[in-house]
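Tutorial handout. Part one gives the primary structure; part two gives the three-dimensional structure as tokens.
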Amino acid sequence: MGHPTFAGAEGSLADMPPDSSHLQEHIDVILRHEEEFLARRTAAERVGDSFGAFVGSLRFIAVHAAWFAGWILINTLKFAHISRFDPPPFPLLDCMVAIEAIFLASFIVMRQGRASRRSDERDHLILQVLLLAEKEVTAVLQIERQIAARIGLSQVAKDADITQLSQTTSIDDVAQTLKESMPLE
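Part two.
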């Protein structure tokens, strides 16, 4: 199985050194989560996403440009075997475009809602990882302070910044301080 490639200065994942298997493991986990999210969509959501992807394409614009041009030409020029069915200012076309806009807006809002839910899931995962990393760093700092004290580096072990950073951080306190500090809208 090939590795996915990422554009940029780093090159592709295939160019990673052999000792970076942990990086590939993380990428595989992320890809698995994305695939699971996509697999959980209902059939209606899949159709909506496909339609939304088409609406956001140049092909959609080209189809509409051709449709509008054809409609306007048929209803303004004289053709022997085609009668005008929507004379200028094209009220039938206006009605159809308005109805289409309602449906397009609905598909877009539905798609954005799913994207927002996925973003919330990612945010929660990121928060959990950050909380775990904070606990791990705090534990490492506590151990390093103890090591520094034992090998005679008491000045490092008693450093105010390091001492403060090696204390357990209360996430609830941080959240409360943020709430109190944030300006009101």
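Part three, for discussion. The first helix runs from residue 21 to 39. The chain has two domains: 1-40, 41-181.
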